[in-house]
Amino acid sequence: MVKVSSRDILDILRRFELAGDDNVPRNVENVKITHPNPISTLASFRFNKYQLYALFDDTAEDDVNYVMSQIKTAKSTVQGELLKNPRDTTTTYAMPFKGKECYLFSVISEKHRLDSELANRYPANSRSTWQKYIKSGFVSVNGTVITSSKYDVADIDQIAINIPETADHSADELPIIYIDDNVVVVNKPVGVLSHAKGVINEEFTVADFFRRYSSYNADTNRPGIIHRLDRDTSGVMIGARNAETAELLQKQFADRRTKKTYYAVLDGVPKLGKANIDLPIGRNPSAPSTFRVDSKGKSAVTKYEVIASNDKHSLVKLQPQTGRTHQLRVHMKYIGTPIRGDKVYGKAADRLYLHAFSLEITIPSGNRTTFTAPVPAEFADQFPGTKL
């Protein structure tokens, strides 16, 4: 065996005419030394963005198969080129060095998309998760921050990951309405997200709270989540504590076997005291994050009843028969009485006056149960004498 330093490697690179006098030992990076057998030394290193191997062995006798077998002890799948000795015409590859023969091998690395390479190197995160980390600027290649998932990298590229520590929400609480071994039900306050929209999220969500109690989807940003409420909507949300319960609850939502009741304060008073609104809803192409009544949209049915009213507002009970995104807000806007405080479909106020009052559903115990969250005082306060 022979001792090998960065200075020795630089000397070899000069002999193979790959380095010049302007190069210094620090240009030789990531040196790793192994010993394929008791009489040989293998140095793996990086120089000028290339990955190379230098094999020191005085028994190789220019045998390419033998030399490659020694190099592949470091990585069996390595591909590349064994470089010829430019100084000696009597041998093809061997370069004399410190009483041994030195062989230099240049790696040819296949290129891969950055997101695919990260998913391969660190399979604990999905490719889509890595795409979001890359886009957020948390990944650098060879010292440069890369924000494109399509960026090509090779095995030899140095990829650094700098993901900020997640916020600590252990002290944040939500009001629990009910909990057992299978479900947890909370009264979601206004302003709290049901779950993060991506892997990068600093604010406290219902999903963060459910994570303490649920094994369902625990490795995602939606642990325990079965359904959702808009950020500005308050009220009843049920979470599953295990996968079996999740399947039971999800099927009831999908089959429309749950019963949901909301209370809302509207700007104005509907022309009819009670009615069924059966109007399909689709995404608004001019504002893709919003929805509208659309003949080509999905079926949407809302039952409403006016409970109280004054000259400016009305208090209504809403019972959606379907579960379309923004359904209640879109339907109320369509009949000319948008929900008070709806910044998207109406006018801003101190809050969105929409509250998920009750949810009737069958839980794993077999009991058909109705969970309720009291209507916030600011709803009824606008209509003195009204009891909810």
Describe the structure.
- The protein has 388 residues and is an alpha+beta fold.
- The chain has three domains: 6-107, Phosphorylase Kinase, domain 1 (2-Layer Sandwich); 112-161, Roll (Structural Genomics Hypothetical 15.5 Kd Protein In mrcA-pckA Intergenic Region, Chain A); 176-380, Pseudouridine synthase (2-Layer Sandwich), CATH 3.30.2350.10.
- Helix content is 17%, strand content 30%.
- The protein contains eight helices and 22 strands.
- Strands 12, 13, 14, 15, 16, 19, 20, 21 and 22 form a nine-stranded mixed β-sheet that branches. Strands 1, 2, 3, 4, 5 and 6 form a six-stranded antiparallel β-sheet that branches.
- The termini are far apart.
Question: Which features characterize this protein?
Answer:
Pseudouridine synthase, elongated, six-stranded antiparallel β-sheet, Phosphorylase Kinase, domain 1, alpha+beta, Structural Genomics Hypothetical 15.5 Kd Protein In mrcA-pckA Intergenic Region, Chain A, 388 residues
Task: Summarize this structure briefly.
The protein is built from eight helices and 22 strands.
Instruction: Output the helix-strand order.
Output: HEEEHEEEEHHEEEEEEHEHEEEEEEHEEH
| CATH level-4 homologous superfamily of the largest domain | Pseudouridine synthase
Helix content: 10-25%
Strand content: 25-35%
The coarse silhouette is elongated
The CATH architecture designation of the largest domain is 2-Layer Sandwich
**Low-pLDDT runs:** none
Number of strands: 22
Top-tier CATH class of the largest domain: Alpha Beta
Tell me the span between the first and last alpha carbons. 87 Å
Number of helices: 8
The assigned structural class equals alpha+beta
Number of domains: 3
Radius of gyration: 33 Å
Q: Main sheet?
A: 9 strands, mixed
Average residue-wise pLDDT: 92
Q: CATH topology of the largest domain, which one?
A: Pseudouridine synthase
